[in-house]
Write a structure and sequence with these properties.
The complex is a heterodimer.
Chain A lengths: L10 H14 L12 H8 L3 H14 L2 E4 L3 E4 L3 H25 L4 H16 L1
Antiparallel strand pairs in A: 1-2
Chain B lengths: L2 E12 L2 E12 L3 E5 L6 H8 L7 E6 L6 H4 L2 E4 L11 H11 L5 H10 L13 H13 L5 E5 L7 H14 L5 E6 L2 H4 L5 E6 L2 E7 H8 L3 H8 L3
Parallel strand pairs in B: 3-7, 3-8, 5-6, 6-7
Antiparallel strand pairs in B: 1-2, 1-4, 8-9
Classes of the chains: A mainly alpha, B alpha/beta.
Chain lengths: 123, 232
């Protein structure tokens, strides 16, 4: 996995976002074990304290839970993952619609445009 | 959190020139801390004071409660700006030296790291490239189970690939109860591994802050902040 970290934003938050996305996209399957803090820190080239903070953040959201001795696991709650995936998709679509609206497209026009582009892509 | 390093009105003068001017500084254990400042700001002077290579003109310096000396040398691992390895000796001789000198030296760890880099311990130091010599020195320093590591410009003058190796060696050997103090002016290369930064300028501490607080509150990278604070 490659990590794109922007030094002008808190690193732990960016790592939490990326792992979040990797879980939603299915790169990390439900119920699987995450690598250790040290391994993840080495991969991302950040310090273990930062990685620890990112994972704590993910634990708070419920996507990851830790078992005292055996490490950290991705949640098995596939409904929750699905819900988060839909939330994320909704955010993206809202953002897109706002951009289109600032260009003067009404939602109806945008929808027609999307359909047109999809038809063209198919053929 | 316990305090690993404490300076009170610490001052160092070289003749008429003041290198450190009454600095007060407290560093907590368990963190990776960047000591950042332009050339000639006092970084190396502070690191040499910590390692008992210089004596303070005024003020107090304590490491885990002790003044620099025999007790602190047992717990402080120091990477100087330039390697001090004798060119005529073999890498393996240094493994034995470090084993003799430092109770906390983990020889198996050092051997393992050398092996992973394909460095033959029977080679003499002079047959190694400059970059490899620096890696050997870093491996020796990081193989101690010290409480405070002082790394003076560990990534200056090496190529980007070696830089990555050095940074990952630091991360991989870092024990969460230890503290690493890294002095450098190459900020963008190290800032992602830092918890905290200390800006030093003309012998004064200009700023001590958590890196994520800087990013959160100012929306800036440490590199950007540094350029702003030390604008010429």
């Amino acid at each position: 996995m490659t990590w794109n970290l922007d030094s002008s934003r808190p690193i732990y938050a960016q790592i939490a976002e990326q792992v979040h996305l990797d879980i939603i996209s299915g790169l990390y399957q439900p119920g699987t074990k995450l690598p250790s803090v040290r391994e993840l820190a080495a991969q991302a080239k950040v310090n273990p304290n930062t990685m620890q903070k990112a994972l704590t953040e993910l634990e708070r959201s419920g996507l990851v839970h830790s078992m005292r001795t055996s490490g950290r696991f991705i949640t098995e709650d596939t409904d929750m993952i699905k819900r988060m995936k839909e939330d994320l998709a909704a955010d993206q679509i809202k953002e897109f619609l706002e951009k289109m609206s600032s260009m003067g497209f009404q939602p109806q026009d945008t929808l027609q445009l999307i359909e047109k582009i999809l038809r063209e892509e198919k053929s | 959190m316990s305090v690993i390093l404490e300076c009170e009105n610490l001052t160092k003068r070289y003749g008429a020139r003041t290198a450190l001017d009454h600095i007060n500084l407290k560093l907590e254990a368990g963190r990776i801390i960047g000591l950042l400042g332009p050339n000639g700001s006092g970084k190396s002077t502070l690191i040499k004071l910590i390692n008992d290579l210089l004596s303070p003109t005024e003020g107090i310096l304590r490491i885990a409660g002790h003044a620099p000396g025999l007790e602190t040398k047992k717990i402080v691992s120091y990477l100087p700006e330039r390697t001090y390895l004798d060119e005529n000796l073999k890498v393996s001789s240094y493994i034995s030296y470090f084993t003799d000198f430092y109770e906390d030296f983990d020889a198996s760890r050092a051997v393992d790291m050398l092996q992973r880099l394909d460095i033959d311990p029977d080679l003499r130091i002079k047959t190694l490239s400059k970059g490899t010599q620096e890696k050997v020195q870093l491996i020796l320093v990081m193989s101690r189970r010290a409480r405070l590591y002082c790394l003076d410009e560990p990534i200056a003058g090496v190529d980007p690939a070696a830089r990555d190796y050095i940074l990952s060696t630091i991360i991989n050997n870092y024990d969460e109860n230890a503290t690493i103090l890294i002095s450098t002016h190459l900020i963008s290369d190290v800032e992602n591994i830092l918890d905290e930064v200390v800006f030093i300028h003309n012998g004064n501490i200009r700023l001590q802050a958590q890196v994520d607080d800087v990013r959160c509150n100012q929306g800036k990278s440490i590199d950007e902040l540094f350029r702003e604070v030390f604008k010429c």
